[in-house]
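Narrative of accomplishments. A recurring question from our advisory board has been how the design workflow behaves on a single, concrete structure rather than in aggregate. To address it, we present the structure tokens for one chain from the evaluation set, followed by the sequence designed for it. No filtering or post-editing was applied between the two.
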């Protein structure tokens, strides 16, 4: 039987692995810069990025209450440089977004 996540109407998985979180919900540099320009402060930036990444994954908007806590609590690891080429840019982005290097 096909998993619901792979159908025409995907849903959010309640349990995500760290690998899935890294691959799907780590914002790109462009997304972080957009969030930094659009939202004021780290809480507002997360309020911008979480729905953005969920929408990108599902193709439709969901209520914040439906987003699994693991996605909301997810913080990209500064040692995971797979999405970023330059450590200086990585540090800058995480500093803007989280007030630290992502820890």
């Amino acid at each position: 039987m096909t998993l619901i996540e792979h159908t025409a109407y995907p849903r959010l998985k309640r349990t995500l692995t760290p690998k899935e979180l890294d691959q799907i919900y780590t914002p790109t540099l462009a997304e972080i810069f957009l969030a930094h320009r659009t939202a004021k402060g780290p809480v507002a930036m997360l309020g911008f990025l979480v729905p953005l990444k969920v929408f990108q994954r599902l193709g439709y908007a969901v209520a914040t209450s439906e987003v699994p806590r693991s996605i909301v609590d997810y913080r990209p690891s500064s040692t995971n440089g797979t999405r970023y080429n330059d450590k200086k840019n990585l540090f800058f982005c995480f500093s803007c977004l989280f007030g630290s290097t992502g820890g």
